Amino acid sequence: MTERSARPTPAGAPATPRHRRAESLHPGAWWLWSLSLGMAATRTTNPLLLTLLIAVSAYVVAARRPSTPWARSYGAFLKLALAVLLIRLVFAVALGSPIPGTHVLLELPEVPLPDWAQGIRLGGEVTAEVLLFALYDGLKLAALLICVGAANALASPSRLLKSLPGALYEAGVAVVVALTFAPNLIADAQPLRAARRLRGRPDSGIRGLLQVGLPVLEGALERSVALAAAMDSRGYGRTAEVPAAVRRTTAVLTLAGLLGVCAGTYGLLTAEGGTYGVPVLLAGVGAALAGLWLGGRRSPRTRYRPDPWGPRAWLVSGSGAAVAVSLALAASADPAALHPGVVPLTAPALPLWPAAAVLLGLLPAFVAPDPKEPS
Fold it and tell me: Where are the domains of the chain?
């Protein structure tokens, strides 16, 4: 080893790209953590637990969000979740609900419908029970959207694409482009709106939206052309020759794996499939992984400086998995606590040990590296 290679990095000097990459967190860990929180949100309609899940994801995003354009998409997901919640409440008010209720809040004019539309109601009485049920249901979907938004704000899409197996590379490119479309539009629109405000021109309303939208779409088109040229120069879509038997085996394993995952997931979500759900799901995952491994032989490509999966990645993904497993066990052990009823009208209670399990999701805020610089 030469003297130059053995010389340590001076104190206070900026870290090299290799050191920054070794200290950064694998993007797959952020997605596993976020999806686990989303799975936990689907196991309960308790508004206190759902609010706690949203608060946990928001705190981690605030503590570990990098200073990159795609990290600003979390606010858009918050607005989308709020819009979904409001739409669910509006539908409950306008279309009614089969939930019986005695606490009438207001009575809207009811529109008479023909006989073939029996079961559908427009207007009528709006009860507190119906609104509360719609609030619980909409809050569950809003929490799921916010958890997905946390993954978009914390994980780098380009680094996540590099970590995908070869069989999913082409599909992964399409998914990454789709996921980064909205954040890029938001990043393009912000300086345009700021420039219009400095010039004293409107940046909101229909007129402002139309005048800002054209430059934003023009920038998106230019970015798409540049992306297509970059993909073409890198040989995107090239495949290697593999035997026909390997191709058929790959197709059979992948199809059987997907069917097994669907059947196993259905078994886990139903009471009748509790015995066969887990074995079928594990068999499907194994077959799908084998199919992906064989399919990767058709995509000859290498990875430059792959992201390491270190202890911090295990802690981050494990904390999310612990939250999901804990709430799944709590839902089967005490379903009344995780799914509070609205008839009769009572205030929901906060179950202690499921709430403590949700707090495990805060672990990434303390063990994940602080992104002082964009990775």
Answer: 25-163+310-367, 240-298
